[in-house]
Amino acid sequence: NAGVMQNPRHLVRRRGQEARLRCSPMKGHSHVYWYRQLPEEGLKFMVYLQKENIIDESGMPKERFSAEFPKEGPSILRIQQVVRGDSAAYFCASSPTQGAADEAFFGQGTRLTVV
Amino acid sequence: DAKTTQPPSMDCAEGRAANLPCNHSTISGNEYVYWYRQIHSQGPQYIIHGLKNNETNEMASLIITEDRKSSTLILPHATLRDTAVYYCIVRVKSGNQFYFGTGTSLTVIP
Question: What is the pLDDT of residues B30-65, one digit of tens each?
């Protein structure tokens, strides 16, 4: 059973470009979480999705950021018109249910560098 | 808001048990205690979780006090590869997210 897969592992974008980060959850997992980690800081929750639904986006910046988890295919975190402050590691996690008893497993992250 | 308190850093001699404390005095009755660790800048790795009873798996043991206001993660025989930041997390009631605080930076010393 493959773990949570994120790609690309490293992404370089110029200011103003778009960044698309992909996350394929573990098999059988229908719940996906996105976190951001700025250099030398802890992980900050961004958004929680189930298939085709955004459940909690309380950690998402109001502009330029969006996320989706379609019925088929990976979850996508999209950042439009990137700025230098978007440079960070973005981690995705998945779990089989929403229940507090179920652990979530994390991918290895996508490291975004905005130049 | 942070619901857990951990010491910022700890050292442990290789081969000895590492005992990482966590205070979660405001925990609710149906909230679980989770432990994750992050080695260097890799993705967080799940270690263990529990509700009321002590738990043990191949990686670690989790000791939760009877009043559930604190817990201790025990790595029985620390190795250099256990050097990491360890996060104690109280899983919020809705289960929507894990709140990562600042964690404890554990350094295993040869």
Answer: 888 999 999 988 999 999 999 988 999 999 999 999
Q: Are strands A43-50 and A19-24 parallel, antiparallel or unpaired?
A: unpaired
Shortest Cα distance, chain A CAs vs residue B85, angstroms: 10
What value, to the nearest 5°, has the Cα angle with vertex A17 and ends A11 and A23?
Answer: 45
In tens, the pLDDT along A6-39 reads 999 999 999 999 999 999 999 989 999 999 999 8
8 A C-beta contact, residue A8 and residue A34: no
Residue A108 DSSP SS3:
coil
List Cβ neighbours of A60 (8 Å cut-off, separation of 6 or more): A46, A47, A66, A67
Residues of A in contact with B30 (CB under 8 A): 100
Assigned token pair, B58:
């191949």
The single residue listed with the structure tokens 């008893």 is A101
Which of B68, B88, B97 to mutate against chain A (most A CBs within 10 Å)?
B97
Q: Is B33 left (phi over 0), alpha (psi -120 to 50) or beta?
A: beta
